[in-house]
Amino acid sequence: xxxxxxxxxxxxxxxxxxxxxxxxxxxxxxxxxxxxxxxxxxxxxxxxxxxxxxxxxxxxxxxxxxxxxxxxxxxxxxxxxxxxxxxxxxxxxxxxxxxxxxxxxxxxxxxxxxxxxxxxxxxxxxxxxxxxxxxxxxxxxxxxxxxxxxxxxxxxxxxxxxxxxxxxxxxxxxxxxxxxxxxxxxxxxxxxxxxxxxxxxxxxxxxxxxxxxxxxxxxxxxxxxxxxxxxxxxxxxxxxxxxxxxxxxxxxxxxxxxxxxxxxxxxxxxxxxxxxxxxxxxxxxxxxxxxxxxxxxxxxxxxxxxxxxxxxxxxxxxxxxxxxxxxxxxxxxxxxxxxxxxxxxxxxxxxxxxxxxxxxxxxxxxxxxxxxxxxxxxxxxxxxxxxxxxxxxxxxxxxxxxxxxxxxxxxxxxxxxxxxxxxxxxxxxxxxxxxxxxxxxxxxxxxxxxxxxxxxxxxxxxxxxxxxxxxxxxxxxxxxxxxxxxxxxxxxxxxxxxxxxxxxxxxxxxxxxxxxxxxxxxxxxxxxxxxxxxxxxxxxxxxxxxxxxxxxxxxxxxxxxxxxxxxxxxxxxxxxxxxxxxxxxxxxxxxxxxxxxxxxxxxxxxxxxxxxxxxxxxxxxxxxxxxxxxxxxxxxxxxxxxxxxxxxxxxxxxxxxxxxxxxxxxxxxxxxxxxxxxxxxxxxxxxxxxxxxxxxxxxxxxxxxxxxxxxxxxxxxxxxxxxxxxxxxxxxxxxxxxxxxxxxxxxxxxxxxxxxxxxxxxxxxxxxxxxxxxxxxxxxxxxxxxxxxxxxxxxxxxxxxxxxxxxxxxxxxxxxxxxxxxxxxx
DNA sequence: GCGCGCCACTTTTTT
DNA sequence: AGTGGCGCGC
Length: 826
Fold this sequence. Notes:
Layout: H1 49-55, E1 62-66, H2 72-85, E2 94-98, H3 101-114, E3 123-126, H4 127-137, H5 139-142, E4 149-151, H6 153-166, H7 176-188, H8 201-220, E5 222-224, H9 225-238, H10 240-249, E6 252-255, H11 263-273, E7 274-277, E8 280-283, E9 286-291, H12 306-314, E10 319-323, H13 331-341, E11 362-369, H14 370-386, E12 395-399, H15 405-414, E13 419-421, H16 431-444, H17 449-455, H18 465-477, H19 482-488, H20 496-510, H21 516-526, H22 529-535, H23 539-560, H24 610-620, E14 634-638, H25 639-642, E15 647-652, H26 669-683, E16 686-700, E17 703-706, E18 721-723, H27 739-745, E19 780-783, E20 787-795, E21 802-807, E22 811-816, E23 822-824
Parallel strand pairs: 1-9, 1-10, 2-3, 2-6, 4-5, 6-9, 11-16, 11-18, 12-14, 12-15, 13-14, 15-16
Antiparallel strand pairs: 7-8, 16-17, 19-20, 19-23, 20-21, 21-22
Helix pairs in contact: 1-2, 2-3, 4-9, 6-7, 6-8, 9-11, 13-26, 14-15, 16-17, 16-20, 18-19, 21-23, 22-23
The structure holds a DNA duplex.
């Protein structure tokens, strides 16, 4: 049954929540007349009208278009708190989904700060975390062992490689990476092998491998990330009582970062929300989706912004609220963001505004080289810190691709400026940690062949590829796991393989009854891992990490409580867990599945071992990348990684055609628009000060490249900018107000967006004058290696001069004229 | 079975 | 440039 919906400016349509008690007295004060809610509702203090409207929306589906820095997380958490506080929802009736563990934790932390409730038992988590919870609770229906393990991307790839070897797949024609991508893509689309349209031989082969991969995973009792989603979607879809139960239970579904959902996640949400009857969606609860189409930067991994439009249509969304008031940045920064993003088509339409003044202009710097760019950043950062403008941790350097961080890192390092790099390998992804986890997984599940192969010969114990090949053949022909294949073949007892299996067996027995810390300590020692790294010369870090693994396990046990869900438990001021009686959680004692927290079988109440729970935690939460948190350090990260963060001061480096926008995404309009959204995200990270920089030359893949400044500069409002590049001799840089700068900025662009025919004569005669090269655009030239070609463009001057030349046989290349041997063809 | 050296690769990333 | 994977030689 659908509730009637109305919208009266967001002002408390209490009649829609029939008979719900309002413990904090919402019912007696605030009304449609807009009575100040501050006095009545401390929760709602300092919310602007749009935020207030969103927080207090009546039942029914809603889409909140929340611009960057508009208080999105605040609205989400306050909404939940408001629902609970007014008795419009019970903790058990709320489902809140995010994409990252960080966002989920943030929500839980804020929520427990607002309300004195136990957030355990609330379904707040990542898509994958909640799917895990569902599958553990209903593992029999889902066809999985309760202690199924989760493959991360690395594990998945090695599982696929193993499969390819086994079935003699030509890895040239079907690269395992691509297969992994294909399989993940299929799952994101909700397709099992039989659902994939295969019109050509290649696709048929891939589908066949997909099928084999599925069988392998099933046999080994492991699931990949995509499988978590797909399997739980199917669980809901195919089991009416289960689906009905959750639909009845979750009166309020809230989705964060909705623009990042893929097709499957949206379908999953629909299953949770209601059933489609006669092509029409019938829902019981309310779905509140919060998102920003302008911040959709994950199309490359299956995110579908179109889900926002589909949601409005299919859920017949009645309430759409735009949060456009920005509390983060000064208007020069905001105007820049707005101007840039206005160049995108097909937007839902949204313009950020602020009551803050213009603030400082956006500073733009042109460097001669990536090295100089990095050095300039460091100088600027040092000055900011020296002047006491802001602490280092409030300064972020953002870049488009990870490769760019190296130069900046070394510049910071040489200047002894503390910095922290985000990204790269995370804790649970480090090799030594994965090795340790593989041993632990074998204790839980000896049939996990991926883990078996990972450590069967690590540390080296004389088991080579040949031996394993034979073993794998034996396992395949008898359809069993590698572990069982060892035991099945008689006469293996005395071999290295037999010894390995025995080792795992002994470990399993030895660790019986031990606590998690003891188990891991024992495994690290008896496996020989510690011994191995003690002898390795670079092993000290690894030993430290392994030690850290024990600590992580320790804090997992004390913080999370084993056998429970991997959701942070709120503690009172004495460090005790806050608890709440089942009755007040609104759980129906007659329905067993209601009471199932994470990692517990909904029917039997059976729960995972502490070890298995920890392994799940390790897979779902890869951990932080860097240990030295909390230090006052400059923050380095990709633009993608910066989403959701904010800093007083932001540097965006490498603003060059081919880098940002990245050349691989410039072929189609969608790609370019995503790059623009990425830039939009980057700009809106800054609160007070924003620097953009580009460099004329850059080392990339060991080669010097000549780059033109990014087209995105042309899409920023001139009046908000300040070009701060100093006048320099001999490098074709310009003072901001020179005529040359104008010409430079508005130079005609050729078919690749490179500027052509813009000839920069240096403001000051060069000290070391290189001989004039005499080249002109359009001239035919001869190169000793590439043969005859045609000059397309010329840039720089003197020693720094270079030309873009098209060679019929070798394509288009940029050549440094001081190096390349070019002769003009008469 | 192990280790060295060569070759190919290189957008963004969470779970 | 730097890394990871693979193949060859010991």
